[in-house]
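Example record used in the benchmark description.
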Amino acid sequence: MEHRGRNPRGERLHEALLREDLAANAGLPIHRDEANGTLLGTVWPDPEKGDVWNPGLLTVRPGPQNKQLGRTLFTAAEDFVKERGAHRICMTVVNVRTTLIAWYERRGYALTGETRPFPYGDERFGRPLRDDLHFVVLPKDL
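Model output (structure tokens):
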């Protein structure tokens, strides 16, 4: 499974990249509008090491964000990785995204105190405006 991450302008995703990656990686959890087939959201599970997976890039079109689509996609991602032998799924979230961290905690992911450095200088992650960023690690046993 190939995932190239953000483009050089620091955008996480754009339509051309998403279309290309979805075509190359059939079977990924996606959600489309039932009426017209519009892509509403994706999640990108990636094997991290052994039986631990990272659910990757969760993307939901802004309009349907309050319709529990993220939860639906995350459940699909957990099922997807279980079917491939995973016993644990592990999220990393930028430390200042407290609302997002709380969202994952409500879904059974736990703060462990483990952190990972923020990749300053790597423009695939944007151009940070502060120097105190890092990732917090939130694992969940499946």
